[in-house]
Amino acid sequence: MMKPLVLAAALLGIFSTAAFGDDRYASRPPVVLSPDLTAPWINQLGGGPVRPVVYQRPAVVQQRGFFQQRRTIIQQQPAPQTVSAIRPGVPVIRGRVEPQFLPQIVDYDTKEKPGSLVIDTNNRFLYLVMAGGKARRYGVGVGKPGFEWAGAHTITRKAEWPDWTPPSEMVSREAAKGHYLPARMDGGPENPLGARAMYLGSTLYRIHGTNAPWTIGSAVSSGCIRMRNEDVVDLYDRVNVGTRVIVM
């Protein structure tokens, strides 16, 4: 008799436990997922009062603000006030030039015909001979010690904003000093040949502009005759291929 009673009690306990379990989950709280699909999937239990978590992604807002601020800073930077008349949109690189090296009309007695060029390397002047004992005089930079030369040539070619290909001798010479030159450099404001070039005979020498106008009046080149960009443009428009050039 005892065994059937024990079995009945055990079965009653099992059914009671199952009933209590069903009662516990009679009203299950909803599973709520964040509607922001870029946020992690989060299961939130707790019923009606629970609201989905929506991430605001502050990093994106910060990034956008950064670029807006950066753009404002760039827009507030002042534009260059001085623009080259030679090449619109390019700032003029100005250096101090002594007044005697600025272009001017002077008295000049010479046997050379009007239209010829005479370059006085000792005094750093280039003369464009005019009629009536006058000349248009420009200041120039000339060859440094060891690179002086003299002679008569003609202008064989003219070029605007010329490219620069350093001679192999110059490349080797500068490399020995620890200065490495480019194999070739496109024309432009940073090019050492400047705005214009007039090539002399079949030599490597030129009358050309410069990206270092403060060197006018000095002996600093490797033999070329350099002028301010403003001056070389003016001279370029006044002479033609075939013009006689005397360097002394």
Q: Between the first and last Cα atoms, what is the distance in angstroms?
A: 143 Å
Beta strands, count:
11
- CATH architecture assignment of the domain at 99-247: Beta Barrel
In angstroms, what is the radius of gyration?
43 Å
At the fourth CATH level, what is the homologous superfamily of the domain at 99-247? L,D-transpeptidase catalytic domain-like
What percent strand?
A: 15-25%
Structure description:
The chain has helices at residues 2-24, 58-76, 168-176, 229-236; strands spanning 104-107, 117-120, 125-129, 134-139, 142-143, 151-160, 196-200, 206-208, 219-221, 225-226, 244-247. The protein has a domain at 99-247: L,D-transpeptidase catalytic domain-like. It has 248 residues and is of the alpha/beta class. The chain is globular. A 9-stranded mixed beta sheet has the order 1-4-3-2-11-6-7-8-10, with helices on one face. It has a two-stranded parallel sheet with strand order 5-9. The protein is 24% helix and 19% strand. The longest helix is centred in the N-terminal third of the chain and has 23 residues, at 2-24. A hairpin with a 5-residue loop joins strand 7 (196-200) and strand 8 (206-208). Residues 15-22 and 32-94 have low confidence and may be disordered.
Give short descriptive properties of this protein.
single chain, 248 residues, alpha/beta, L,D-transpeptidase catalytic domain-like, nine-stranded mixed sheet, two-stranded parallel ribbon, 4 helices, 11 strands, 19% strand, globular
